Every structure is written in C-alpha cells, then in structure tokens.
Amino acid sequence: MALVGTKPALIEGDVALRLGKKERQQRILQELQVHPHVRVATLAERFDVATETIRRDLDALSSDGLINREFGGASARPMGHQPDLAQRQLSAVAGFERIGMLAADMVRSGDVAMIDAGSTVAQIAPFLAARTTKLPRTFLTNCYAVVHGMAELADHEDVLMCPGQFNRRENAVYGNDTIEYLRRFHANIAFIGASGISRQGFSDVNRRAVAVKRAMMERSDETWLMVDHTKFDQRYLENVAPLEELTGIITDRQPEPEFASQLERAGIRLLAWREDTH
Amino acid sequence: MALVGTKPALIEGDVALRLGKKERQQRILQELQVHPHVRVATLAERFDVATETIRRDLDALSSDGLINREFGGASARPMGHQPDLAQRQLSAVAGFERIGMLAADMVRSGDVAMIDAGSTVAQIAPFLAARTTKLPRTFLTNCYAVVHGMAELADHEDVLMCPGQFNRRENAVYGNDTIEYLRRFHANIAFIGASGISRQGFSDVNRRAVAVKRAMMERSDETWLMVDHTKFDQRYLENVAPLEELTGIITDRQPEPEFASQLERAGIRLLAWREDTH
DNA sequence: TTGAAAAAGTTGGAAAATCAACACAAAACT
DNA sequence: AGTTTTGTGTTGATTTTCCAACTTTTTCAA
C-alpha cells in the first residue's frame, strides 16, 4: 500500500529546498484553504517539480476526498456540503468521509457529545444524522458546518450552538463566551480536530480554536481526536495537549506501526480505516 | 459599455429555451454558490451556447469581481456569497433586497446592532458588509443566514452569534440560552422580522422566535421592523408586540395611505422604497 | 425601414493540460 | 549487498483551452 511516506529529499539548491511528497500535499491543502482553486502549472513551478508530480498529488488528494480535481488544477471542497452520504452504500465511502463514519459509531444512544470545528471533524455530521437511536442524543458544537451537515435529526434530538465571535474562515465561533458556555455542560464524549499530530501531541494553527478544544476536553469523559493521514508528523506552534489526554484517535489510514505501538503502550485507542473489514 | 442587457431571446425549441446574457450569468453565479468550480466546456454544453460565449461571460463576471477566472473555467470567490451588491448599480437592486438596503442605512458608525432571524431580515447582511465606517460596529444575531451574508467585514468589526438550540428550518438558534445571552448586552438598534403585521401589531408563527424578538427589543434603544409587502394585514396567533413599541417599519412598497397615516399619528417612522428616489 | 450597437457564433493557430508508458533515482526491506 | 518499492522525471501523442480576428444574428431606436 501507500502507507509509508518517503522522507523529504532535502536536496539544498541555491535557495529553495525540495519538499517531500507529504509536505507538498499538506501545503497544497493549506493553499486551498485560502484560495478556492489551484493550478497544476503554478504549483509545479512553486515546488519546483514536474507537472506530472503535481498531477499525481492532486489525484491522490482527490481520491482521498480532500479536494475536488478540476481540469488544470483542483478546487477546495465546500465544508459541510455532503448531504447524500446517508444513502450511499458503505462500500462507496471515500477516504475523508471514512473518518466521520468511524467517529459516528462511537456515539451511543443517549449520549451528550461535544463537536469541535474544522472540515475533518465536520465529516461526522451526516453520519450522526443517519443513525437512529433509542434515547435522544444531544450535540454541542461551535461550528456551523457541523450543524449544517446534520441533514435531519429527529425532533427530540438537540443541537446546541455555542455563542461567540464568528470566524468566517472556519465557519465557527470562538472567544470567551464560547468557553464559558461549554463549561456549563458535561458531555460523555468529545470529538476534536487538529492541524497536526506528532508523538509529542497534537497542535493547531489557531490560538482561539485551541482554547475551545481544551474547554471541550475538560468537560468530556472521553476525547477522540479526528485527523486524516496528511496531518501525521505535522507540528504547529500552538500545542493543544499531549497524546496521553486522548481516549483515542480516529483516522482514515493505518499509521506507521511504530506510531501505532506507541499509542498502544500509552493506552490510547486507535480507530483507523481498514479496507478488509468494510 | 456593457451595462444595458439584451432581453432573453426566448426562442422556444423542443424543450429548452435560450437564456439571455444576464440570466445566463446569473445562473453561473448560482452554480458557483453550490459547486466551487465550473468549467467552460460544461457550461457551454448546458446552456447550449458556444464556448466563446461562456468565456466572455466568465471574463465579464471576473472583471466585476464576482468570480475568479481560472484556466478552463472559474471558481467561486473565497467564502463570500454576494460581495458584489456594493458595486451593482442601485437601480438593479431587486425587490427583496431593497429592504435590506434601506435597513443598512440606519446603522451608524460605532453602533451595536441586534439582528433577528428570517429571510427578510437577512437581506440586510450584504449591505452592512459593504459599508465602510469610521468606528467599528458590533453585530449580534441568532441567525446563521445573517453572518453568512456578511461576505467580508473588516477584521475589527465583531459578529457575535447567540447560543441556543439550532433550528434547521430557520437557520437560527432559539431557547433560554439565546434569551439569556441577549440580556447581557445593550444595543443601539435592533432589526426584527415578523410573519405578519396589522393595525393591532405584528405577529409570528414560531413561539420560540417570538421570545427572542422580545428580548432583542428589550435590550435595544431602537427597534425597526423589516417586512415585505406580502406580510401586511396578516395576523398569526403569536403576537409579538403592538406597533407602538416600534421605532419604525422598513418595507419594499408604499402601504395603503390609511395605514401610513396611522403610523404617522403614532409617531412610527416608515421607510418604504420609492422608485423615483433611487 | 434602415442602421448602429450588442450579443453570439466561427475559425485557425498557439499554448496548456491530459494520459500512458517508460526510465531513473532514492528509500526501504530482507 | 542486492532486491523491491516508491517517488519523480521525461517523452510524445492526444485533447482541451485560449486568444484574436472576423462573420452572422439579434436588438433597439431613429
């Protein structure tokens, strides 16, 4: 399989140094968060690689469901905009969505769940909405993409939105009001996202988002981290917490065995999609 | 120049009928609100026109700043859904939007404004975002459609979302948390919607929405009711308040003279769109 | 009716992207 | 060390898009 990444070539040219596949794809994703469209030729020039390499990157990211491939480039995926997931057969579930599916399985009937902001975490929404339960559940989130993704919940199931300052880029609210509001509740389970995860813990680029994540973790019995495979071995300045504070990690691919065994030793559960069982 | 549009050809074929330039471009914009990227070839086929025509459309829309032109097609502008209203000629503002435009004029630099939920009230959003002010403004709303409509506010301008139970039909939050949160603030001005308005007052179909409207009115110096002409002489079970509690009414047509004079006697201002002044 | 202006269609060569196949280098594995 | 896997570059035939200039059709108004 294509699990093990190649380390960056690190060939130092005059000024720029070549990036590995992983980092390159990560940068492409970042670029797409800012601009809604990228072009093959432009990326090839920026990263100083052949256009075919970029095309392969784009095709890979696309089949993981992370971006939309277009002629001449790729475009960002609109957040919370997959209304049809519920009906599709499980076998057809593509990469990115798998994380949401695995996560939704962790919510039990009658649970109270806190759900963080971010495109990865928002994948859980349509699958939560598709479940039928005996006891009503309650969802608490600071992210509009999440509530938007829950097509139709039963009437007796509650979706609570946090207050706060609205952030257009993340489609979420942040700030003191958000934290305070969260502290009024107690949840069984929390689903958290991150910009990057490494052996030292997981981190995020947005300081205000980090505060919300911490608040959710404090007020929940269990904390599950939802990250796709491109986030592995990425570190950002704002550290959220060490891995030990997590109940488990939900991801779309089996990580490197070394990392997996570290998790096992620390008593952290790992939910990774496996082709054979689905 | 390219200001005056040609009317649609309206040549009726077997099934499809050709669209005029204006409508075609309108459709392209709509398409881009759903999908982040469109392709020249696809559009040409769908509208049954030459690719060159589509290219001209795309170039035009792009130079108006409405879309981003890309190789082979075009992509949606980052997030913002309708940042264009500011540039469009005033005469092109269609019925529903007029209410929003009139309302946005009432917000002064440095104001704190509360904004209710509902499609009519949400019309104010793009026009608020288009204004440039000397002092930062603060907006407080329980409706996602409102914040979503504010394409790009300056960074120093705050948009505060209320907490509460999310209601999918209204794209808004309601409940005790919402009320409590609103009570913590004091605003200069509030914009309220209603399902119906009559001489006796204005009313709404949703009891939980009514509670929020009352809370906003309590905490604001001024209250403006935003209603389109179809709401006149309509009464619903849940009465919100008598007309006397309003500062004014904003609507898209001159109401009957009899009603207008009643408002005048009661000291309620009336802002109704008049073709001649715009 | 006639004529100017706007919109849409047509054409051909240049530029760019796609796709498939193959070659090569660097890692990773045994 | 030697083999396999993985990532990347290269090439060339094919398709698609772009651009500019020109023609045709439609619209509108004098």
From TrEMBL, chains A, B:
HTH deoR-type domain span: 21-76
PROSITE patterns, sorted: HTH_DEOR_1, HTH_DEOR_2
Annotated GO molecular function terms are: DNA binding; DNA-binding transcription factor activity
InterPro entries of this UniProt entry?
Carb_Metab_HTH_regulators (IPR050313), DeoR-like_C (IPR014036), DeoR_HTH (IPR001034), NagB/RpiA_transferase-like (IPR037171), Tscrpt_reg_HTH_DeoR_CS (IPR018356), WH-like_DNA-bd_sf (IPR036388), WH_DNA-bd_sf (IPR036390)
Asked if the record carries the keyword Secreted, the reply is no
Q: Gene3D superfamilies from the entry?
A: 3.40.50.1360, Winged helix-like DNA-binding domain superfamily/Winged helix DNA-binding domain
Q: Does the keyword Cytoplasm apply?
A: no
State the UniProt keywords alphabetically: DNA-binding, Transcription, Transcription regulation
**Protein's UniProt name:** Glycerol-3-phosphate regulon repressor
Organism of origin is Thalassospira profundimaris
